[in-house]
DNA sequence: ACTTCGCATCAGGTCACGAA
DNA sequence: TTCGTGACCTGATGCGAAGT
């Protein structure tokens, strides 16, 4: 594996912008590090030689490039005029569509090809009134699209000289294709042009700012500006990601059919993805169904490896899923249960009597719960119909409606739905005073495209929540006792969020978690599951002599202790134990005060697999000296294997 | 020659724990 | 309460092998 790119000081040198174009090279420190490892001056020279050769080669290359470019890129007349005030400028009228990936077409925020305008900002104070101009300028004008460093212009300035602009143009890395390919040279007619297809060939991670800008300038050599400079255009800075990132892109909003790793915090083939897959949760729909039917089970599947914060992010993202308009009907001898695609009850018919959501509380709660679970278990056999629901019908369970729906349309609908029912309005859903657990969605009784929300459980911690008897109704979405705690937790989390900045954060979270009564079960489950997923870092019990030393408890791979030990040539468990036996205090010193006594003891418990025989009957000092000698000449001894 | 894919590694974030 | 550290996660990406 090659070392990661280094960002040395030379790259930050503003006076040498071309430094950024260099192929990243090993830092001096990394070279020295290698040398220390091999511990020989010969290695030092052999390590430095290729580095020096490359540095010299690249510097010569850059000098040649700069010398060869400058005369071509700026005409003498342009150079003189560069610093003159200019009211005419190129602009990108629209922002770019983000994120941008390599090998993908660069488009504007409306997903249309990028445009470039020439505008005159004379008499324009706020930039909003700039208009394309076509007069007083030659027509057409050739324009070149270039890539700029994201840090340009420095200091947030909105003006620059032609030379500054030119010095911040980025070129491809050594051995790579041109950084920008496609229609990089365009012709502006009547003050406006559209760029066809352009795309990046390389990501932006290799420059210090990690961001690019697109720039547009009048093509070098064009002497057609009638004595005035046309100022260059630049876009906002943006990150260009490797095209592979596009494959892993999260969907906003996700669809029911999306694979579950499209949700935030669930990486493709990552630990959570595997855990979910092992429970047959493959799609966002699967995820949401289980969330509705048995939230605690879903939480346990993910385990403590998924923190509360991550869980919230994932759930929040999942909740933005568009549910579509399908309805699933679970029929029995005396009942029919109408469910939405994520197992929320829309309506129930029991013994011929129709129960819209508002009246579901009148039915035996356990009875309905069991039906829902049964429906969930037999999901594939349910009858599917087109319910004609509004396409934007979304989840509204267990959270503030506002938070769940960035879509204002849906928010408005939810608001009206609350009002219709005479239930809690959004205004009352004050973040600081209460949280609202919304029950389930139903199509409006009138059959209109609106839908209603029923408050199932509403918890108030500090303020009042006027939901009347509705608060006593039940929610099929909050089926177990834990979910009453969820009400508490939601409120608690609101309070917690408001205290985010203060130092009670961790203790407070711990307290909340303890209320959830899930630690032991989840932890043991998560540990079991986690072991399979973190096998790369797994500690060995017991460790083998040949094991790398970081297999011992409290010694993280590539962590501080690992490095300290490695620097003393203690690479294996055997090395560790040898020094432990021969000179325990030295070993302790190597690890330093960073390893607490408790950690030290734990590492010892894990490391001491071989009992040291009692030497009290033998001359201790003599034996110790022999052992030290043996240790010092370890590799020169002939060893026999004990039978 | 170029693309695709899998592997390995790294960076950065979050969290828990323990010591001071 | 603060700080240092390890653990473990996702996401990014360099590299080489295999495929086209």
From TrEMBL:
Q: What are the record keywords, sorted?
A: Activator, DNA-binding, Nucleus, Transcription, Transcription regulation
Domain Calmodulin binding protein C-terminal spans what residues? Answer: 326-384
Q: Report domain Calmodulin binding protein-like N-terminal positions.
A: 88-243
Q: Which residues form the Calmodulin binding protein central domain?
A: 256-321, 544-603
* Localization per record: Nucleus
Q: Which GO terms describe its cellular component?
A: nucleus
An individual GO BP term: regulation of salicylic acid biosynthetic process
Chain residue ranges for the region called Disordered: 1-26, 476-500
Q: Sorted alphabetically, which Pfam families does this protein's record hold?
A: Calmod_bind_C, Calmod_bind_M, Calmodulin_bind
| Compositionally biased tracts (Acidic residues) | 476-485
Q: Which GO terms describe its molecular function?
A: calmodulin binding; DNA-binding transcription factor activity; sequence-specific DNA binding
Q: Does the keyword Zinc-finger apply?
A: no
Family in the record: Belongs to the plant ACBP60 protein family.
Please report the name of this protein according to its UniProt entry.
Answer: Protein SAR DEFICIENT 1
């Amino acid at each position: 594996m090659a070392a990661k790119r280094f960002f040395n000081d030379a790259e930050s040198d503003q006076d040498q912008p071309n430094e950024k174009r260099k192929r990243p090279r090993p830092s001096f420190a990394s070279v020295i590090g290698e040398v220390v490892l091999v511990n020989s001056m010969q290695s030092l020279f052999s390590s430095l030689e290729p580095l020096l050769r490359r540095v010299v080669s690249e510097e010569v290359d850059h000098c040649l490039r700069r010398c060869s470019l400058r005369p071509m890129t700026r005409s003498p007349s342009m150079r003189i005029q560069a610093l003159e005030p200019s009211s005419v400028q190129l602009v990108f009228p629209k922002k770019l569509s983000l994120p941008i990936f390599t090998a993908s077409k660069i488009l504007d925020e409306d997903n249309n090809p990028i445009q470039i305008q020439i505008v005159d900002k004379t008499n324009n104070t706020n930039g909003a009134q700039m208009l394309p101009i076509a007069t007083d300028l030659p027509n057409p004008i050739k324009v070149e699209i270039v890539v700029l460093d994201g840090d340009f212009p420095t200091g947030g300035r909105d003006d620059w000289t032609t030379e500054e602009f030119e010095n911040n143009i980025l070129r491809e890395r050594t051995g790579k294709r041109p950084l920008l390919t496609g229609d990089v040279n365009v012709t502006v007619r009547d003050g406006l042009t559209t760029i066809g297809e352009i795309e990046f060939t390389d990501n932006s991670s290799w420059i210090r700012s990690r961001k690019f800008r697109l720039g547009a300038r009048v093509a070098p050599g064009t002497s057609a500006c009638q004595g005035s400079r046309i100022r260059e255009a630049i876009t906002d800075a943006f990150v260009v990601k490797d095209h592979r990132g596009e494959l892993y892109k999260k969907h906003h909003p996700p669809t029911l059919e999306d694979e579950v790793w499209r949700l935030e915090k669930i990486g493709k083939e990552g630990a959570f993805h595997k855990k979910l897959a092992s429970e047959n949760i493959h799609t966002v729909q699967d995820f949401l169904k289980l969330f509705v039917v048995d939230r605690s089970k879903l939480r346990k599947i993910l385990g403590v490896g998924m923190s509360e914060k991550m869980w919230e992010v994932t759930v929040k993202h999942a909740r933005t899923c568009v549910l579509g308009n399908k309805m699933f009907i679970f029929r029995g001898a005396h009942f029919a249960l109408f469910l939405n695609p994520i197992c929320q009850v829309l309506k129930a018919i029991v013994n011929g009597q129709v129960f819209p959501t508002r009246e579901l509380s009148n039915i035996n709660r356990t009875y309905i719960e069991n039906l829902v679970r049964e429906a969930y278990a037999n999901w594939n056999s349910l009858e599917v119909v087109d319910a004609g629901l509004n396409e934007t019908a979304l989840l509204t369970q267990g959270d503030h409606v506002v938070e769940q729906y960035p879509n204002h349309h849906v928010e408005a609908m939810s608001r009206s739905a609350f009002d219709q029912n005479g239930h809690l309005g959004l205004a009352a859903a004050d973040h600081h005073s209460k949280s609202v657990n919304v029950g389930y969605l139903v199509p409006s009784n009138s059959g209109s495209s609106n839908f209603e929300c029923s408050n199932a459980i509403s918890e108030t911690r500090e303020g009042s929540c006027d939901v009347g008897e509705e608060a006593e109704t039940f929610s099929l979405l909050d089926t177990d006792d834990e979910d009453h705690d969820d009400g508490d937790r939601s409120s608690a989390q609101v309070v917690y969020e408001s205290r985010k900045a203060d130092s009670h954060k961790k203790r407070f979270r711990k307290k909340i978690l303890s209320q959830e009564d899930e630690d032991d079960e989840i932890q043991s489950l998560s540990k079991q599951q986690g072991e399979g997923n973190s096998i790369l870092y797994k500690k060995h019990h017991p460790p083998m002599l040949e094991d790398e030393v970081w297999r011992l408890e409290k010694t993280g791979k590539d962590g501080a202790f690992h490095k300290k030990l490695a620097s003393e040539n203690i690479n294996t468990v055997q090395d560790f134990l040898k020094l432990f036996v021969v000179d325990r205090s030295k070993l302790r010193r190597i690890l330093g005060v960073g390893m607490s006594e408790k950690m030290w003891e734990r590492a010892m418990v894990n490391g001491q697999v071989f009992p040291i025989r009692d030497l009290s009957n033998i001359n201790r000092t003599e034996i110790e000296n022999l052992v030290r000698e043996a240790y010092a000449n370890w590799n020169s001894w002939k060893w026999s294997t004990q039978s």
